[in-house]
Write a structure and sequence with these properties.
- This protein has 264 residues and is α/β, with parallel strands linked by helices.
- It has a single domain, classed as Rossmann fold, CATH 3.40.50.
- It has eleven helices and twelve strands.
- The protein has helices at residues 41-44, 71-83, 96-107, 133-138, 146-153, 155-164, 178-188, 194-199, 218-225, 241-244, 246-259; strands at residues 7-8, 11-12, 14-18, 23-27, 49-53, 89-94, 112-118, 142-143, 166-168, 171-173, 204-209, 229-234.
- The chain has a seven-stranded mixed beta sheet with strand order 3-5-4-6-7-11-12, with helices on both faces. The chain has a three-stranded antiparallel beta sheet with strand order 8-10-9.
- A hairpin with a 2-residue loop joins strand 9 and strand 10 (171-173).
- Helix 2 (71-83) packs across helix 3 (96-107) and helix 5 (146-153) crosses helix 6.
- It is globular, with a radius of gyration of 17 Å.
Length: 264
Amino acid sequence: MDSARLTARGRPLLIARGGDGAPLVLVHGLMGRGSTWGRQLPWLTALGTVFTYDAPWHRGRDVTEPHPISTEHFVGELGDAVAALGRPAVLIGHSMGALHAWCLAAHRPDLVSAVVVEDMAPDFRGRTTGPWEPWLHALPVEFGTEEQVLAEFGPIAGRYFLEAFDRTATGWRLHGRRRHWIDIAAEWGLRDYWQQWQQVRVPALLLEAGNSVTPPGQMRRMAEIGYCTTYLQVPDAGHLIHDERPQVYRDAVEPFLASLTQHT
């Protein structure tokens, strides 16, 4: 199996992680990376051929992106990567990755057979990145020890970021630029993605955290107006449902993927 199906400036966009059958593409959230899905791979690779993906502005601190930041650019690059597989894929997205997954399903329905939307909503208009920016700017570019990362982010998110950051000879370094990450989130405060959601015509599983980053009620509304949706709220989970409540996440995703044969 080829590990790189498509490259961007010499770097692989999709990395094959094992398994057989229909492709499952794991699409990370803001400040994440494909490498953060490691704890889900053992059971996901029993359900299909799994690929991870690094989004633009998340491919390493020294990797430059010549394009302006926009959802359309994210979706275009994800679409190019999925198209290179030669068959439609299930897109399993977290947060930002979930948004890009459903936008791709709307824009290129030939590429997507189903989507998993984890803790992401269509409309953040009016919200700004102002409260978040001081914290992000205060982060060191590089952490010297694992303990420092865990102390900054906590045991769940800390493990996630240890897996996302660039590993260097002296520690763990941010794998992108803080200004870019702020600009990505800022775009969500200026527009909404309801139209794209209503254009999705593939089965969708929606998972909302009890301690969600999404505006109240929006994910339930997505389930109500969506084409073929399954909705689950996980009351005792934060934004990283798949890491904080891994068994609940698995118990939702496994039957959803198994049910897809009924829609083909």
